[in-house]
Design goal:
alpha/beta; Rossmann fold; Alpha-D-Glucose-1,6-Bisphosphate, Chain A, domain 4
Protein backbone atom coordinates (compact mmCIF):
# COMPACT_ATOMS: atom_id res chain seq x y z
CA UNK A 1 0.00 0.00 0.00
CA UNK A 2 1.59 3.24 -1.19
CA UNK A 3 1.54 6.47 0.81
CA UNK A 4 0.45 9.52 -1.18
CA UNK A 5 0.94 13.09 0.03
CA UNK A 6 -1.90 15.47 -0.75
CA UNK A 7 -1.71 19.23 -0.47
CA UNK A 8 -4.88 21.26 -0.86
CA UNK A 9 -7.07 18.66 0.88
CA UNK A 10 -9.19 21.47 2.34
CA UNK A 11 -9.67 23.01 -1.11
CA UNK A 12 -12.05 22.39 -3.98
CA UNK A 13 -10.25 19.64 -5.96
CA UNK A 14 -8.19 18.17 -3.11
CA UNK A 15 -11.29 17.74 -0.97
CA UNK A 16 -12.79 15.50 -3.66
CA UNK A 17 -9.59 13.69 -4.56
CA UNK A 18 -8.82 12.56 -0.98
CA UNK A 19 -11.82 10.19 -0.60
CA UNK A 20 -11.22 8.86 -4.13
CA UNK A 21 -7.65 7.89 -3.23
CA UNK A 22 -8.76 6.32 0.06
CA UNK A 23 -11.39 4.27 -1.75
CA UNK A 24 -8.71 3.09 -4.18
CA UNK A 25 -6.68 1.69 -1.26
CA UNK A 26 -3.92 4.29 -0.88
CA UNK A 27 -2.63 5.70 2.36
CA UNK A 28 -3.25 9.43 2.13
CA UNK A 29 -1.16 11.94 4.06
CA UNK A 30 -3.08 15.22 3.95
CA UNK A 31 -0.81 18.23 4.49
CA UNK A 32 -2.97 21.15 5.60
CA UNK A 33 -2.55 24.43 7.41
CA UNK A 34 -5.65 23.94 9.55
CA UNK A 35 -6.37 20.25 10.32
CA UNK A 36 -9.64 21.21 11.99
CA UNK A 37 -11.04 22.17 8.59
CA UNK A 38 -11.24 18.46 7.77
CA UNK A 39 -13.10 17.43 10.92
CA UNK A 40 -16.57 17.32 9.39
CA UNK A 41 -15.59 15.51 6.17
CA UNK A 42 -17.19 12.09 5.85
CA UNK A 43 -13.78 10.54 5.16
CA UNK A 44 -11.90 12.27 8.00
CA UNK A 45 -11.93 9.17 10.19
CA UNK A 46 -10.65 6.74 7.55
CA UNK A 47 -8.02 4.37 8.90
CA UNK A 48 -5.66 5.10 6.01
CA UNK A 49 -5.80 8.88 6.40
CA UNK A 50 -2.97 10.75 8.14
CA UNK A 51 -3.74 14.45 8.65
CA UNK A 52 -0.69 16.61 9.35
CA UNK A 53 -0.41 20.31 10.01
CA UNK A 54 2.08 21.63 7.49
CA UNK A 55 3.24 25.05 6.37
CA UNK A 56 4.46 24.94 2.78
CA UNK A 57 6.87 27.75 3.57
CA UNK A 58 8.53 25.79 6.40
CA UNK A 59 11.23 23.72 4.64
CA UNK A 60 12.21 21.45 7.54
CA UNK A 61 8.60 20.70 8.48
CA UNK A 62 7.69 20.04 4.88
CA UNK A 63 10.55 17.58 4.31
CA UNK A 64 9.51 15.60 7.37
CA UNK A 65 5.87 15.62 6.25
CA UNK A 66 6.78 14.29 2.80
CA UNK A 67 9.25 11.66 3.95
CA UNK A 68 8.08 8.15 3.10
CA UNK A 69 5.60 9.28 0.43
CA UNK A 70 5.74 7.60 -2.96
CA UNK A 71 4.02 10.48 -4.80
CA UNK A 72 2.74 13.94 -3.91
CA UNK A 73 -0.14 15.96 -5.31
CA UNK A 74 0.45 19.70 -5.50
CA UNK A 75 -3.00 21.34 -5.54
CA UNK A 76 -2.18 24.72 -4.05
CA UNK A 77 -3.12 28.08 -5.50
CA UNK A 78 -2.66 31.55 -4.01
CA UNK A 79 -5.38 33.46 -5.86
CA UNK A 80 -6.73 34.65 -2.51
CA UNK A 81 -3.44 36.50 -1.84
CA UNK A 82 -3.89 40.24 -1.58
CA UNK A 83 -3.65 42.33 -4.74
CA UNK A 84 -1.62 40.90 -7.60
CA UNK A 85 0.83 39.03 -5.37
CA UNK A 86 -0.63 35.59 -6.07
CA UNK A 87 1.84 34.80 -8.89
CA UNK A 88 4.92 35.52 -6.78
CA UNK A 89 3.44 33.66 -3.81
CA UNK A 90 2.68 30.65 -6.03
CA UNK A 91 6.28 30.51 -7.23
CA UNK A 92 7.65 30.81 -3.69
CA UNK A 93 5.50 27.98 -2.34
CA UNK A 94 6.12 25.77 -5.37
CA UNK A 95 9.88 26.15 -4.99
CA UNK A 96 9.68 25.25 -1.32
CA UNK A 97 7.61 22.18 -2.15
CA UNK A 98 9.90 21.06 -4.98
CA UNK A 99 12.98 21.33 -2.74
CA UNK A 100 11.28 19.40 0.05
CA UNK A 101 10.04 16.68 -2.32
CA UNK A 102 13.59 16.15 -3.56
CA UNK A 103 15.07 16.05 -0.06
CA UNK A 104 12.33 13.70 1.20
CA UNK A 105 12.84 11.23 -1.66
CA UNK A 106 9.41 11.65 -3.27
CA UNK A 107 9.36 9.78 -6.59
CA UNK A 108 6.90 11.98 -8.49
CA UNK A 109 4.78 15.11 -8.19
CA UNK A 110 1.34 15.49 -9.77
CA UNK A 111 0.10 18.99 -10.52
CA UNK A 112 -3.15 20.42 -11.89
CA UNK A 113 -2.48 23.52 -13.98
CA UNK A 114 -4.22 25.64 -16.60
CA UNK A 115 -4.74 24.92 -20.28
CA UNK A 116 -3.14 27.25 -22.81
CA UNK A 117 -0.28 27.30 -25.30
CA UNK A 118 3.26 28.28 -24.27
CA UNK A 119 3.15 31.84 -25.54
CA UNK A 120 3.73 35.31 -24.17
CA UNK A 121 0.13 36.19 -25.08
CA UNK A 122 -1.24 34.11 -22.23
CA UNK A 123 -2.90 35.94 -19.36
CA UNK A 124 -0.85 36.52 -16.23
CA UNK A 125 -2.91 33.85 -14.48
CA UNK A 126 -2.18 31.14 -17.07
CA UNK A 127 1.47 32.18 -17.30
CA UNK A 128 1.65 31.80 -13.52
CA UNK A 129 0.24 28.28 -13.76
CA UNK A 130 2.93 27.33 -16.28
CA UNK A 131 5.66 28.98 -14.23
CA UNK A 132 4.65 26.77 -11.29
CA UNK A 133 5.03 23.72 -13.55
CA UNK A 134 8.64 24.70 -14.28
CA UNK A 135 9.45 25.44 -10.65
CA UNK A 136 8.07 22.09 -9.48
CA UNK A 137 10.28 20.30 -12.02
CA UNK A 138 13.40 22.35 -11.22
CA UNK A 139 14.80 19.99 -8.57
CA UNK A 140 14.71 16.83 -10.67
CA UNK A 141 11.63 15.11 -9.24
CA UNK A 142 9.47 13.95 -12.21
CA UNK A 143 6.34 16.09 -12.47
CA UNK A 144 3.13 15.00 -14.18
CA UNK A 145 1.07 18.00 -15.23
CA UNK A 146 -2.61 18.02 -16.14
CA UNK A 147 -3.71 21.21 -17.87
CA UNK A 148 -7.43 21.94 -17.67
CA UNK A 149 -9.66 24.75 -18.89
CA UNK A 150 -12.95 25.59 -17.18
CA UNK A 151 -13.88 23.00 -14.56
CA UNK A 152 -17.63 22.47 -14.31
CA UNK A 153 -18.76 21.22 -10.94
CA UNK A 154 -20.93 22.23 -8.02
CA UNK A 155 -19.03 24.79 -5.99
CA UNK A 156 -16.23 25.57 -8.44
CA UNK A 157 -15.36 29.26 -8.87
CA UNK A 158 -15.85 29.31 -12.64
CA UNK A 159 -19.12 27.40 -12.42
CA UNK A 160 -20.53 29.77 -9.78
CA UNK A 161 -19.63 32.80 -11.93
CA UNK A 162 -21.45 31.23 -14.86
CA UNK A 163 -24.50 30.18 -12.82
CA UNK A 164 -24.98 33.53 -11.09
CA UNK A 165 -24.54 35.59 -14.25
CA UNK A 166 -27.06 33.51 -16.20
CA UNK A 167 -29.50 33.20 -13.31
CA UNK A 168 -29.57 36.91 -12.42
CA UNK A 169 -29.06 38.81 -15.68
CA UNK A 170 -31.61 38.55 -18.53
CA UNK A 171 -29.39 40.90 -20.56
CA UNK A 172 -25.60 40.79 -20.32
CA UNK A 173 -23.14 43.33 -21.71
CA UNK A 174 -19.94 41.31 -21.81
CA UNK A 175 -16.33 41.56 -23.02
CA UNK A 176 -15.42 39.98 -26.34
CA UNK A 177 -14.14 36.89 -24.55
CA UNK A 178 -17.64 35.36 -24.65
CA UNK A 179 -16.73 34.37 -28.23
CA UNK A 180 -13.52 32.59 -27.15
CA UNK A 181 -13.48 28.80 -27.72
CA UNK A 182 -13.19 26.67 -24.63
CA UNK A 183 -13.15 22.94 -23.81
CA UNK A 184 -14.64 22.59 -20.30
CA UNK A 185 -14.33 19.43 -18.24
CA UNK A 186 -16.51 18.02 -15.46
CA UNK A 187 -14.94 17.96 -12.01
CA UNK A 188 -15.57 14.21 -11.69
CA UNK A 189 -13.48 13.66 -14.84
CA UNK A 190 -10.67 15.84 -13.44
CA UNK A 191 -10.60 13.83 -10.21
CA UNK A 192 -10.62 10.54 -12.14
CA UNK A 193 -7.65 11.66 -14.23
CA UNK A 194 -5.72 12.78 -11.15
CA UNK A 195 -6.32 9.51 -9.33
CA UNK A 196 -5.74 7.37 -12.43
CA UNK A 197 -2.25 8.77 -13.05
CA UNK A 198 -0.92 6.79 -10.07
CA UNK A 199 -1.67 3.54 -11.88
CA UNK A 200 0.14 4.56 -15.08
CA UNK A 201 3.89 4.90 -14.32
CA UNK A 202 4.73 6.08 -17.84
CA UNK A 203 2.86 9.33 -17.19
CA UNK A 204 5.64 10.49 -14.83
CA UNK A 205 7.40 13.55 -16.20
CA UNK A 206 4.73 14.20 -18.86
CA UNK A 207 2.30 17.04 -19.52
CA UNK A 208 -1.25 16.28 -20.64
CA UNK A 209 -4.20 18.41 -21.68
CA UNK A 210 -7.59 17.38 -20.34
CA UNK A 211 -11.03 18.42 -21.51
CA UNK A 212 -14.54 17.15 -21.98
CA UNK A 213 -16.29 16.14 -25.19
CA UNK A 214 -17.36 19.62 -26.31
CA UNK A 215 -15.56 22.64 -27.71
CA UNK A 216 -17.73 25.74 -27.62
CA UNK A 217 -17.70 29.44 -26.84
CA UNK A 218 -18.53 30.83 -23.42
CA UNK A 219 -21.63 32.34 -25.00
CA UNK A 220 -22.81 28.89 -26.05
CA UNK A 221 -22.09 27.54 -22.55
CA UNK A 222 -24.26 30.34 -21.13
CA UNK A 223 -27.06 29.23 -23.43
CA UNK A 224 -26.89 25.68 -22.11
CA UNK A 225 -26.79 26.94 -18.53
CA UNK A 226 -29.96 28.98 -19.13
CA UNK A 227 -31.74 25.92 -20.52
CA UNK A 228 -30.70 23.74 -17.58
CA UNK A 229 -31.71 26.44 -15.08
CA UNK A 230 -35.08 26.72 -16.78
CA UNK A 231 -34.79 30.46 -17.46
CA UNK A 232 -35.35 32.26 -20.78
CA UNK A 233 -32.36 32.40 -23.08
CA UNK A 234 -30.18 35.36 -22.10
CA UNK A 235 -29.37 38.27 -24.40
CA UNK A 236 -25.58 38.56 -24.60
CA UNK A 237 -24.08 41.75 -26.08
CA UNK A 238 -20.28 41.56 -26.51
CA UNK A 239 -18.48 44.92 -26.50
CA UNK A 240 -14.75 45.69 -26.97
CA UNK A 241 -14.44 48.25 -24.16
CA UNK A 242 -14.82 46.04 -21.08
CA UNK A 243 -11.38 45.29 -19.64
CA UNK A 244 -10.67 42.31 -17.36
CA UNK A 245 -10.51 44.72 -14.41
CA UNK A 246 -13.93 46.19 -15.17
CA UNK A 247 -15.28 42.69 -15.78
CA UNK A 248 -13.93 41.53 -12.42
CA UNK A 249 -15.79 44.31 -10.59
CA UNK A 250 -18.98 43.40 -12.42
CA UNK A 251 -18.49 39.74 -11.49
CA UNK A 252 -17.88 40.84 -7.89
CA UNK A 253 -21.21 42.68 -7.75
CA UNK A 254 -23.29 39.91 -9.33
CA UNK A 255 -21.65 36.69 -8.10
CA UNK A 256 -20.23 35.45 -4.77
CA UNK A 257 -16.61 35.83 -5.90
CA UNK A 258 -14.47 38.79 -4.94
CA UNK A 259 -12.92 40.94 -7.65
CA UNK A 260 -9.46 39.80 -6.47
CA UNK A 261 -10.30 36.23 -7.52
CA UNK A 262 -12.46 37.24 -10.49
CA UNK A 263 -9.78 39.40 -12.14
CA UNK A 264 -7.24 36.65 -12.96
CA UNK A 265 -10.09 34.36 -14.02
CA UNK A 266 -11.54 37.04 -16.31
CA UNK A 267 -8.09 37.72 -17.82
CA UNK A 268 -7.67 34.03 -18.61
CA UNK A 269 -10.99 33.86 -20.46
CA UNK A 270 -9.56 35.82 -23.39
CA UNK A 271 -7.22 32.93 -24.30
CA UNK A 272 -8.54 30.01 -26.41
CA UNK A 273 -8.26 26.89 -24.24
CA UNK A 274 -8.78 23.81 -26.40
CA UNK A 275 -6.96 20.47 -26.08
CA UNK A 276 -4.48 19.73 -28.85
CA UNK A 277 -3.21 16.56 -27.20
CA UNK A 278 -5.60 13.66 -26.47
CA UNK A 279 -3.04 11.07 -25.22
CA UNK A 280 -4.48 11.05 -21.71
CA UNK A 281 -7.75 9.53 -22.95
CA UNK A 282 -6.02 6.28 -23.88
CA UNK A 283 -3.80 6.18 -20.79
CA UNK A 284 -6.58 6.86 -18.25
CA UNK A 285 -9.81 5.89 -20.02
CA UNK A 286 -13.14 7.03 -18.56
CA UNK A 287 -16.57 8.21 -19.77
CA UNK A 288 -16.29 11.96 -20.37
CA UNK A 289 -19.27 14.21 -19.68
CA UNK A 290 -20.54 16.74 -22.17
CA UNK A 291 -21.00 20.35 -21.09
CA UNK A 292 -24.73 19.82 -20.69
CA UNK A 293 -24.24 16.64 -18.65
CA UNK A 294 -21.67 18.34 -16.42
CA UNK A 295 -23.92 21.36 -15.79
CA UNK A 296 -26.91 19.11 -15.09
CA UNK A 297 -24.90 17.01 -12.61
CA UNK A 298 -23.63 20.13 -10.81
CA UNK A 299 -27.10 21.66 -10.51
CA UNK A 300 -28.43 18.37 -9.17
CA UNK A 301 -25.82 18.54 -6.37
CA UNK A 302 -27.06 22.00 -5.43
CA UNK A 303 -30.69 20.86 -5.40
CA UNK A 304 -29.89 17.82 -3.24
CA UNK A 305 -27.63 19.83 -0.86
CA UNK A 306 -24.79 17.37 -1.49
CA UNK A 307 -22.05 19.77 -2.60
CA UNK A 308 -18.83 18.16 -1.30
CA UNK A 309 -16.52 21.17 -1.63
CA UNK A 310 -16.72 24.84 -2.61
CA UNK A 311 -14.20 27.40 -3.80
CA UNK A 312 -14.76 29.46 -0.62
CA UNK A 313 -13.52 26.64 1.65
CA UNK A 314 -9.90 27.14 0.62
CA UNK A 315 -7.54 29.75 2.03
CA UNK A 316 -6.06 30.53 5.44
CA UNK A 317 -8.11 31.36 8.50
CA UNK A 318 -7.09 34.63 10.07
CA UNK A 319 -5.95 34.35 13.67
CA UNK A 320 -8.23 35.51 16.42
CA UNK A 321 -7.83 39.21 17.17
CA UNK A 322 -6.30 40.16 20.48
CA UNK A 323 -9.30 41.26 22.54
CA UNK A 324 -7.12 42.25 25.52
CA UNK A 325 -6.46 45.94 25.94
CA UNK A 326 -8.01 48.80 24.02
CA UNK A 327 -11.72 49.35 23.47
CA UNK A 328 -13.87 46.26 22.95
CA UNK A 329 -17.64 46.62 22.67
CA UNK A 330 -19.85 43.69 23.66
CA UNK A 331 -23.50 42.93 23.15
CA UNK A 332 -24.34 39.90 25.34
CA UNK A 333 -27.81 38.34 25.43
CA UNK A 334 -29.16 35.32 27.23
CA UNK A 335 -32.18 33.11 26.61
CA UNK A 336 -33.51 30.03 28.44
CA UNK A 337 -34.90 27.56 25.91
CA UNK A 338 -37.24 24.66 26.62
CA UNK A 339 -35.38 22.23 24.39
CA UNK A 340 -32.31 20.00 24.76
CA UNK A 341 -28.86 21.36 23.87
CA UNK A 342 -28.81 19.22 20.71
CA UNK A 343 -31.91 20.92 19.31
CA UNK A 344 -30.61 24.39 20.22
CA UNK A 345 -27.27 23.67 18.56
CA UNK A 346 -28.98 22.48 15.38
CA UNK A 347 -31.08 25.65 15.27
CA UNK A 348 -28.00 27.82 15.80
CA UNK A 349 -26.15 26.04 12.99
CA UNK A 350 -28.93 26.86 10.51
CA UNK A 351 -28.18 30.59 10.54
CA UNK A 352 -27.34 32.26 7.26
CA UNK A 353 -27.47 31.11 3.68
CA UNK A 354 -30.90 30.42 2.23
CA UNK A 355 -32.38 29.99 5.72
CA UNK A 356 -31.68 33.57 6.68
CA UNK A 357 -30.88 34.97 10.12
CA UNK A 358 -34.20 34.33 11.88
CA UNK A 359 -35.10 38.03 12.07
CA UNK A 360 -34.68 41.32 10.17
CA UNK A 361 -33.42 39.53 7.06
CA UNK A 362 -34.01 42.74 5.10
CA UNK A 363 -31.40 44.45 7.28
CA UNK A 364 -28.93 41.63 6.63
CA UNK A 365 -29.55 41.95 2.88
CA UNK A 366 -28.96 45.70 2.99
CA UNK A 367 -25.73 45.16 4.95
CA UNK A 368 -24.66 42.48 2.49
CA UNK A 369 -25.33 44.77 -0.48
CA UNK A 370 -23.35 47.58 1.12
CA UNK A 371 -20.48 45.18 1.74
CA UNK A 372 -20.40 44.08 -1.91
CA UNK A 373 -20.31 47.70 -3.04
CA UNK A 374 -17.08 48.32 -1.10
CA UNK A 375 -15.37 45.07 -2.12
CA UNK A 376 -16.48 42.68 0.62
CA UNK A 377 -17.98 39.19 0.21
CA UNK A 378 -21.57 40.19 0.99
CA UNK A 379 -24.13 37.46 1.55
CA UNK A 380 -23.80 35.63 -1.78
CA UNK A 381 -21.27 33.09 -0.55
CA UNK A 382 -24.16 31.49 1.32
CA UNK A 383 -23.33 28.12 2.84
CA UNK A 384 -22.44 24.67 1.52
CA UNK A 385 -25.12 22.72 3.39
CA UNK A 386 -28.41 24.07 4.83
CA UNK A 387 -28.11 22.09 8.09
CA UNK A 388 -24.42 21.58 8.86
CA UNK A 389 -21.41 23.87 9.17
CA UNK A 390 -17.76 22.92 9.34
CA UNK A 391 -14.75 24.61 10.89
CA UNK A 392 -13.21 27.10 8.47
CA UNK A 393 -16.23 27.25 6.15
CA UNK A 394 -17.61 30.50 4.80
CA UNK A 395 -21.10 31.39 5.98
CA UNK A 396 -22.31 34.47 4.12
CA UNK A 397 -19.84 37.21 5.17
CA UNK A 398 -18.68 35.24 8.22
CA UNK A 399 -16.12 32.45 8.67
CA UNK A 400 -16.60 29.60 11.17
CA UNK A 401 -13.69 29.89 13.62
CA UNK A 402 -15.04 27.94 16.57
CA UNK A 403 -17.17 24.80 16.63
CA UNK A 404 -17.98 22.43 19.48
CA UNK A 405 -20.91 20.11 19.00
CA UNK A 406 -23.90 21.06 21.18
CA UNK A 407 -21.82 23.74 22.89
CA UNK A 408 -20.38 26.47 20.65
CA UNK A 409 -20.47 28.23 17.29
CA UNK A 410 -18.10 31.17 16.71
CA UNK A 411 -18.20 33.31 13.59
CA UNK A 412 -15.59 35.89 12.62
CA UNK A 413 -16.64 38.71 10.31
CA UNK A 414 -15.04 38.93 6.86
CA UNK A 415 -17.16 41.85 5.69
CA UNK A 416 -15.46 45.21 5.25
CA UNK A 417 -15.38 46.78 8.71
CA UNK A 418 -13.46 49.51 10.56
CA UNK A 419 -12.51 46.94 13.18
CA UNK A 420 -12.70 43.26 14.15
CA UNK A 421 -16.06 41.56 14.80
CA UNK A 422 -17.01 38.22 16.29
CA UNK A 423 -20.44 36.63 16.77
CA UNK A 424 -20.53 33.73 19.23
CA UNK A 425 -23.26 31.36 20.38
CA UNK A 426 -22.58 29.41 23.57
CA UNK A 427 -24.91 26.70 24.91
CA UNK A 428 -24.93 25.67 28.58
CA UNK A 429 -27.09 23.39 30.72
CA UNK A 430 -28.44 24.84 33.97
CA UNK A 431 -31.15 24.20 36.54
CA UNK A 432 -33.41 26.52 34.49
CA UNK A 433 -32.93 24.43 31.33
CA UNK A 434 -30.83 24.97 28.24
CA UNK A 435 -29.31 28.46 28.22
CA UNK A 436 -28.18 30.09 24.98
CA UNK A 437 -25.71 32.98 25.28
CA UNK A 438 -25.25 35.20 22.25
CA UNK A 439 -22.32 37.59 22.22
CA UNK A 440 -21.38 40.13 19.57
CA UNK A 441 -17.88 41.52 20.08
CA UNK A 442 -16.34 44.45 18.20
CA UNK A 443 -12.86 45.96 18.49
CA UNK A 444 -12.97 49.30 16.62
CA UNK A 445 -10.13 50.75 14.57
CA UNK A 446 -9.90 54.47 15.06
CA UNK A 447 -12.67 57.04 14.97
CA UNK A 448 -14.57 55.34 12.13
CA UNK A 449 -14.72 52.15 14.17
CA UNK A 450 -16.29 53.99 17.09
CA UNK A 451 -18.79 55.75 14.82
CA UNK A 452 -19.69 52.44 13.17
CA UNK A 453 -20.49 50.72 16.49
CA UNK A 454 -22.73 53.52 17.72
CA UNK A 455 -24.44 53.76 14.32
CA UNK A 456 -25.49 50.09 14.31
CA UNK A 457 -26.16 49.82 18.05
CA UNK A 458 -29.87 50.81 17.78
CA UNK A 459 -30.40 47.97 15.27
CA UNK A 460 -29.18 45.28 17.67
CA UNK A 461 -32.60 45.07 19.34
CA UNK A 462 -34.10 44.02 16.00
CA UNK A 463 -31.23 41.89 14.72
CA UNK A 464 -29.79 40.10 17.75
CA UNK A 465 -32.86 39.91 19.97
CA UNK A 466 -34.92 38.76 17.00
CA UNK A 467 -32.30 36.16 16.17
CA UNK A 468 -32.44 34.75 19.69
CA UNK A 469 -36.23 34.56 19.52
CA UNK A 470 -36.06 32.80 16.16
CA UNK A 471 -33.53 30.26 17.40
CA UNK A 472 -35.68 29.59 20.47
CA UNK A 473 -38.79 29.13 18.37
CA UNK A 474 -37.01 26.79 15.96
CA UNK A 475 -35.45 24.63 18.71
CA UNK A 476 -38.68 24.35 20.74
CA UNK A 477 -40.72 23.56 17.62
CA UNK A 478 -38.30 20.77 16.72
CA UNK A 479 -38.49 19.44 20.28
CA UNK A 480 -42.31 19.48 20.23
CA UNK A 481 -42.39 17.66 16.88
CA UNK A 482 -40.08 14.98 18.25
CA UNK A 483 -42.34 14.52 21.31
CA UNK A 484 -45.44 14.17 19.12
CA UNK A 485 -43.74 11.52 16.96
CA UNK A 486 -42.54 9.65 20.06
CA UNK A 487 -45.96 9.68 21.70
Amino acid sequence: MRTIALTGATGYIGGRLAPRLLEAGYRVRALVRSPRKLEDRSWAGHENLDIRAADLGNAAQLVESLRGCDAAYYLVHSMTAAGDRYAAEDVRLAQSFADAARDAGVRRIIYLGGLGDDSSLLSEHLQSRQQVEKVLASTGVPVTVLRAAMIIGSGSASFEILRYLVERLPVMVTPRWVQTPCQPIAVRNVVSYLAGLLEVPETAGETYEIGGTDVMTYREIMGIMAEELGVPRRVVIPVPVLTPRLSSYWIHLVTPLSHAIAKPLAEGLRNPVVCRDQRIRALVPQPLLSVREAIRAALAKYSAHTVETRWSMAGPIAGDPDWAGGTVFRDVRRRVIAAPAEAVYRAVCRVGGGHGWYAADWLWRIRGGMDRMVGGPGLRRGRRNPERVGFGEALDFWRVTGLERNRLLSLRAEMKLPGEALLEFRIEESAEGTVLYQEARFAPRGLFGLLYWYAVLPLHAFVFEGMLTGIQREAERECNRAQIVTS
